[in-house]
Structures are given as structure tokens and as C-alpha cells.
Amino acid sequence: MSKIQATFERLQAQGRKALIPFITAGDPGPALTVPLMHTLVDAGADIIELGVPFSDPMADGPTIQRASERALAKGVSLRQVLEMVANFRADNSETPVVLMGYANPIEAMGVARFAEAAFGAGVDGVLVVDYPPEESVEFAQAMREHALDPIFLLAPTSGEARISQVGALASGYVYYVSLKGVTGSAALDVAAVAARIPEIRARTGVPVGVGFGIRDAATAGAVAAIADAVVVGSRIIETIEQSTPETACANVLDLVAGLRRGMDEAVGQAVAAKDGGGGV
Question: How many CB atoms lie within 10 A of CB 28?
């Protein structure tokens, strides 16, 4: 059983949902990445998505684009990102880490070499935005051969065939992009998301995490009540961007802890309402 699967099973037994925060490795500087990762765990993160900086992050909005630019300006490479994960693992062997990024850096390293290096560093899953499932059979196989979960995106426009293709390859969880657009977009429609999740669960057989447009505790709670995981990225990057290096960890701790509380309260209320309704 993978560390990601074990995390979801533990949370399910506890009646809780996974909080998956995203930060870009190397932003605002390489020295802060590992402390920020530990801060995310202290604040209640269950899984960490660590962004690999890339010069053309086409699925990301301006906030995460700027984070990539800042990290690239500091010379952060894929190899350095793996070193950061290994450094994090020196003090935390439990929290799953998912690398999220684009194909070019992986292709430059070589898929097999990347899989071996990622496993050696302590990575648990890999989400490559521009690897569509119909072209990812060999990639998914290479990941699984090194005990890495291949994670894929699904969108509001994904049809039955695409969902089934992802279901044939994905493990760990799938990331449902709640909005048409890029990261940091607004106006998340929770009801529309809720209508899609049962079909995705049925066709993939893995937990469903929802991201894009989640900016506060109330929205995180609303999504937690219907999904298996809540993914938050741009809002955290904005907090880092608006902080000094000295205050970044404390400010991120406050933000993410608030998201955690909002999720736990909403899930608790949903369970109480369900139990109360069933007892009449």
C-alpha cells in the first residue's frame, strides 16, 4: 500500500478529509522550502504538493507563474527540488509528498532516471500537468515500478472516456480541477463540483481531491463536505508573496491552520446532520 493510499484510509477511518496544500519549490528562496513544508504539516496538511518550477506553467495563473519565476531566478532545478524533498525526509518520514509540474524537466532528465531519483529522495506521487492519460501508459508504469503514485487531472469538460482513461492509470488520488481556467480563478460552484464527484469516484476507484478557486476556510469546508481532499495553492503562494522571509512560515501556518479548522468543522457538521436525519 502506498503512503498516499494509507493516508486516505487513515483519514476515512477518522471521519476526516485530506488537506493538500501546494507551494512552489524554491519560492521565495531555496532555503525556505523545507521550513515551509514542515510548517504545512504543523498546520494540519495531510499531503504536500510541491511544485517544480517551470518557465511556461500553462495551467497556472499569474500567482503561481510568479512563484515559478522567482524560483527559476534563484536557479532552482528539478534535481534541487529532489534534494529539498530528501532534506524534508530527514525529519519527516510520514507525510506524503507529491511533485507537481510539467513534462519538460522530466523528459530532460529521462523518465526512468527521474522515477528512480524521485523514489530515492522520498517522493510518493507525481502529477505532470501536460501528460494526458492516453499518452501516459509508459509513464504511469515507470512511476509504479518505483512505488510512486501517478496522479492525473480531470476537469469539468472531461467526458466519460477521459475519466475512464484516468481510472485505468491513476493511483493515490485524482485531482479534479473545479473551474474552467487557470489556478487562482474565482467563483467556484460547489454544487457543480458535487454533481461530478460520484461519477469520477465510480470510474476511477481512487479518492478525489478538488482544487482551483479555494481561497478561504468557508470554501475549503464546503469542498471537504463533498470531496475526499481539498487542494489549495494560489492562496498560500499569495501569503508567501506578501510576507517577508522572516514572517512567511508564521503567516502560512495561520492560513493553513484556518483552512484545516474550516474543513474539520464542516465535515463534522455534515456527519452530525446525516446522523441526526437518520435517527428520526
Answer: 20
Give residue limits of the domains in the chain.
Answer: 3-278
pLDDT digits (tens, 9 = 90+) for 114-131: 999 999 999 999 999 999
**CA gap 77, 83 in Å, rounded:** 10
- Whose CA is closest to 89, among 126, 121, 49, 41? 121
- The pLDDT score that the predictor gives to residue 181 is 52
Give residue-wise pLDDT tens across range 72-122: 999 999 999 999 999 999 999 999 999 999 999 999 999 999 999 999 999
Residue of 27, 42, 56, 60 marked catalytic? 60
Residue among 72, 61, 99, 73 at smallest CA distance from 235: 61
Cα first-last separation, the chain: 39
Active site residue 42: no
- What residues contact 175, with CB distance under 8 A and at least 6 apart? 127, 151, 152, 153, 154, 209, 210, 211, 231
One-letter amino acid at 174 equals: V
| Cα–Cα distance for residue pair 108/131, rounded to 1 Å | 14
Question: Could you read off the pLDDT of 144-203 as tens digits, one per residue?
Answer: 999 999 999 999 999 999 999 999 999 999 999 987 654 544 567 889 999 999 999 999
Q: Catalytic annotation on 254?
A: no
Class assignment of domain 3-278?
A: alpha beta
Pick the catalytic residue: 49, 124, 149, 264?
A: 49
